[in-house]
């Protein structure tokens, strides 16, 4: 059932420089489990069905706007003068009916919808003018501390830089998620100063101002401290990813997926996996990917933007932008590139690469092949080492192999070329002309037999005694394979 629309306007602050990321990408667009952290937050927010979502962006506004599209209305903060100033920047976007505002920092991808709902419910119930989300951290360094009075009421937030040594020992921190009554919030913001260590307008100062004017301030302390985590550098990004990965994997296991080692299984947000599928370690399921039931994936599989049916096997392979129908199998050591489609029960085996290739039901390409721009019918067998020569240096050309054809090992299919229904190519052939249905095509130079070759070159023991490198008696540097220019000339004369 869709949630009831919340009587709330969401405001996401994302104009910070993100300097500690040391990146050309705006901080809030760094992905966690495959999705930019800002979009992860918008997903969470949208599940609450807020009245509107507003966003404050900074110098990277254009890229941020591109990423969020129509999902948020954006105000641009030209000068970053602090979180209080950022909220003021969004002022002109507000309408009279936006009476209650949920403010969040854009770098908190781990906050959950249920915690936000609890926060809104507490704000409503307590009749507060401001309600904070806080967490307790074993190491609160860097965060604003929540200062309470003797009866436990929130008095103010003190930033790390302004805190006294005893305040620094407080382990309850401000997460940067708050609910405010709009009129009180803006009254205070308009009176805000920047007389502090950073010379910024601190949104956090509003809390004490509301208290001083007799307004009530409530706080919800989230049980899971991860929810309050802000991502400011790459180490925190990795930590956020680890936590999110754990949540994704736990959900999949609850839904009936077996993971041999969830700590070594990497599934992007939004990937679907069916019941009774077994995932071996070092598997990456990425992008828009859907895996059916009863599949065996990994070890060491990377599947990107692909759809797999039921009963599919993929081991030690890369599959990108491909479709693998029921009971098909891939690998070990295969690379399926964009536009590949494996039909039911078909196979792309060991050291096989495919690109823009359709393989019909039950067909097999078991070993050491490259199939590019090929259409392979049903019940085809492609022998080991066969390849499509699809590129002439300028253009790509198509290869068609009709139903039931048998491609002998090491066939070069020089495209454009067609092998007809039930046709056969001889092993080692270069096929450059179409092969009619049911025909055999062989292209091979004749084999020569040189009788008594071994006897004429001396006994095995004599050969073994010869030094490995030439110069020794009877040594012949070209002779390692029983063949050299000299002997070749001689044989020619004799034949
Ligand atoms: C802030 C809080 C701190 C809290 C911490 C939680 C203040 C003064 N401090 O500190 O109490 O414990 O978050 O992570 O609010 N931003 C703008 N414009 C600006 C400045 C910041 O949009 O001019 C945005 C940033 O993009 C970010 C958020 O506001 O999303 C918080 O800013 P940040 O610089 O990360 O604040 P912290 O120092 O982490
Ligand atoms: Ca922060």
Task: Provide a descriptive summary of the structure in words.
There is one protein chain. With 495 residues, the protein is an alpha/beta fold. It has two domains: 6-228, Spore Coat Polysaccharide Biosynthesis Protein SpsA, Chain A (Alpha-Beta Complex), CATH 3.90.550.10; 256-441, Hexapeptide repeat proteins (UDP N-Acetylglucosamine Acyltransferase, domain 1, 3 Solenoid). The strands form eight sheets. A nine-stranded parallel β-sheet has the order 14-17-20-23-26-29-32-35-38, with no helix packed on it. Strands 5-4-1-6-10-7-11 form a seven-stranded mixed β-sheet, sandwiched between helices. A seven-stranded parallel β-sheet has the order 12-15-18-21-24-27-30, covered by helices on one side. Strand 8 (145-148) and strand 9 form a beta hairpin. It is elongated, with a radius of gyration of 34 Å. Mean pLDDT is 92; it is low at 468-495. The structure holds uridine-diphosphate-N-acetylglucosamine (UD1) and calcium ion (CA). Calcium ion binds at residues 105, 107, 230, 232.
Determine the strand fraction and express it as a percent band. Answer: 25-35%
The CATH level-2 architecture of the largest domain is identified as: Alpha-Beta Complex
Helix content: 10-25%
Mean pLDDT: 92
Order of strands side by side in the largest beta sheet?
14-17-20-23-26-29-32-35-38
CATH H-level superfamily title of the largest domain: Spore Coat Polysaccharide Biosynthesis Protein SpsA, Chain A
Broad structural category: alpha/beta
